[in-house]
């Protein structure tokens, strides 16, 4: 996990949403890849036939592993465990945006959102979630948020 106190200054034009790097010349912190500028990548990840969806420690570890693997900066995690079915709703607030989850363990289903901007790599979260919850099927949708067509 990166410390906010020791965040490196980024070179001009580098992409990040971290508010700590206000000295960066590119204050809008857009990502520019393949000639397209956008705010961040938002993945919608559905896990079907998944297990352990009612285990708070496993969910929190999966979030932390995603943050580390994706190169993001964790600010806060909050999880809520519902009863009687044991479902979990949770969010990890990141300097780069967020990861959220809602689970239906009685249906073996989980809905994750992974939204990250800057240099973070949200696509790396898919494998972490697959290992943590062993789904029989994963569906991933991608949305480039804040797309600027005239940059």
Automatic annotation (TrEMBL):
Residue positions, PTM Pyruvic acid (Ser): 97
Site positions per UniProt: Cleavage (non-hydrolytic): 96-97
The protein's required cofactors: pyruvate
Cofactor: binding details: Binds 1 pyruvoyl group covalently per subunit.
Alphabetical UniProt keywords: Autocatalytic cleavage, Decarboxylase, Lyase, Polyamine biosynthesis, Pyruvate, S-adenosyl-L-methionine, Schiff base, Spermidine biosynthesis, Zymogen
Keyword S-adenosyl-L-methionine: yes
Record-level Gene Ontology MF annotations: adenosylmethionine decarboxylase activity
Enzyme class: lyase
PTM per Swiss-Prot/TrEMBL: Is synthesized initially as an inactive proenzyme. Formation of the active enzyme involves a self-maturation process in which the active site pyruvoyl group is generated from an internal serine residue via an autocatalytic post-translational modification. Two non-identical subunits are generated from the proenzyme in this reaction, and the pyruvate is formed at the N-terminus of the alpha chain, which is derived from the carboxyl end of the proenzyme.
Residue ranges of the TM segments: none
SUPFAM superfamilies: S-adenosylmethionine decarboxylase
Record Gene3D superfamilies: 3.30.160.750, S-adenosylmethionine decarboxylase domain
Active site, UniProt feature: 97, 102, 117
Pfam families in alphabetical order: AdoMet_dc
Catalytic activity: S-adenosyl-L-methionine + H(+) = S-adenosyl 3-(methylsulfanyl)propylamine + CO2
EC id: 4.1.1.50
Pathway recorded for this protein: Amine and polyamine biosynthesis; S-adenosylmethioninamine biosynthesis; S-adenosylmethioninamine from S-adenosyl-L-methionine: step 1/1
Similarity section: Belongs to the prokaryotic AdoMetDC family. Type 1 subfamily.
Subunit field text: Heterotetramer of two alpha and two beta chains arranged as a dimer of alpha/beta heterodimers.
Function comment: Catalyzes the decarboxylation of S-adenosylmethionine to S-adenosylmethioninamine (dcAdoMet), the propylamine donor required for the synthesis of the polyamines spermine and spermidine from the diamine putrescine.
NCBIfam families: SAM_DCase_Bsu
The protein's name: S-adenosylmethionine decarboxylase proenzyme
Gene responsible for this protein: speD
């Amino acid at each position: 996990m990166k410390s906010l106190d020791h965040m490196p200054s980024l070179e001009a034009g580098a992409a990040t949403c971290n508010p700590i790097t206000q000295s960066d010349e590119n204050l809008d912190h857009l990502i520019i890849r393949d000639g397209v500028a956008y705010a961040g990548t938002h993945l919608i990840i559905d896990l079907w036939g998944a297990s352990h969806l009612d285990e708070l420690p496993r969910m929190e570890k999966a979030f932390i592993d995603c943050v580390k693997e994706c190169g993001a900066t964790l600010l806060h995690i909050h999880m809520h465990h519902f009863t009687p079915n044991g479902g979990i709703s949770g969010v990890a607030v990141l300097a780069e945006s967020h990861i959220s989850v809602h689970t239906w363990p009685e249906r073996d289903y989980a809905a994750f959102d992974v939204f990250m901007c800057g240099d973070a790599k949200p696509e790396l979260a898919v494998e972490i979630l697959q290992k943590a919850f062993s789904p029989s099927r994963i569906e991933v949708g991608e949305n480039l948020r804040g797309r600027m067509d005239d940059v």
